[in-house]
Design brief:
The structure holds 2 protein chains of 2 kinds.
Chain A (H helix, E strand, L loop, with lengths): L2 E3 L4 E5 L4 E3 L2 E3 L6 E7 L6 E7 L7 E2 L2 E6 L4 E6 L8 E8 L12 E2 L3 E6 L1
Parallel strand pairs in A: 2-12
Antiparallel strand pairs in A: 1-4, 3-9, 5-6, 5-10, 7-8, 8-9, 10-11, 10-12
Chain B lengths: L2 E5 L2 E4 L5 E8 L6 E6 L5 E9 L2 E4 L5 E7 L2 E6 L8 E8 L5 E3 L3 E5 L1
Parallel strand pairs in B: 2-11
Antiparallel strand pairs in B: 1-3, 3-8, 4-5, 4-9, 5-6, 7-8, 9-10, 9-11
Classes of the chains: A mainly beta, B mainly beta.
């Protein structure tokens, strides 16, 4: 079974600063997907970024980027030029690919980090 | 484009009452569908998974059940609610790229 650990229950930074959210995971699989989801006060789960384990290049999406360290089983999220709208719960999640039967397990989530962007 | 709907958005039910939450997906066929529950201050827990009509897999033993009467409809039910069933229920479907997309969720309060 896979586990996902987010060690920072809450973080607070000033607007325009850069913030990094930590995530570690444990698995015996070699091929898998990692995700960061954002959950604002509306509680809608929004996909922020996705990383495929077989790709060495770190994924980026505008102000969001990841630092994927496969050997260390670490997957941190960096938010640059943080904005007030970035205030939300952020969840790290793991999934085995569908073609390997991962669909049955769905996503394994960490407990989340509450990120607060101060004006 | 694909969209996913859930209703009701909010529900307050007494202990021992039945439950029916509905999820429907538009713009795709034969999706893999999921029910997750998020308890207060916690992450998401997978409850049920379905690959097709009438095919349901349960991840966590509980007094909840799921059904898939149509290709794009997924229903979460209970015959008698418990206080511990309170939480935020999310339906999700999986996209070709192994990404899961979530519905807006249902907030259930059991009193």
């Amino acid at each position: 079974a896979q586990t996902v650990t987010q060690s920072q229950p809450e973080m607070s930074v000033q607007e325009a600063e850069t913030v990094t959210l930590s995530c570690t995971y444990d698995t015996s699989e070699n091929n898998y997907y990692l995700f960061w989801y954002k959950q604002p006060p509306s509680r809608q789960m929004i996909l922020v970024i996705r990383q495929e384990a077989y790709k060495q290049q770190n994924a980026t999406e505008n102000r969001f980027s990841v630092n994927f360290q496969k050997a260390a089983k670490s997957f941190s999220l960096k938010i640059s030029d943080s904005q007030l709208g970035d205030t939300a719960m952020y969840f790290c999640a793991f999934m085995i690919p569908l073609v390997r039967g991962g669909g049955a397990d769905g996503l394994t989530f960490g407990k989340g980090t509450h990120l607060i962007i101060q004006p | 484009s694909q969209t996913i709907h859930q209703w009701p958005a909010t529900l307050v039910q007494p202990v021992g009452s039945p439950l029916s939450l509905e999820c429907t997906v538009e713009g795709t066929s034969n999706p893999n569908l999921y029910w997750y529950r998020q308890a207060a201050g916690r992450g998401l827990q997978l409850l049920f998974y379905s690959v097709g009509i009438g095919q349901i897999s349960s991840e966590v033993p509980q007094n909840l059940s799921a059904s898939r009467p149509q290709d794009r409809q997924f229903i979460l039910s209970s015959k008698k609610l418990l206080l511990s069933d309170s939480g935020f229920y999310l339906c999700a479907w999986i996209y070709d790229g192994n990404e899961q997309f979530f519905g807006p969720g249902t907030r259930l309060t059991v009193l």
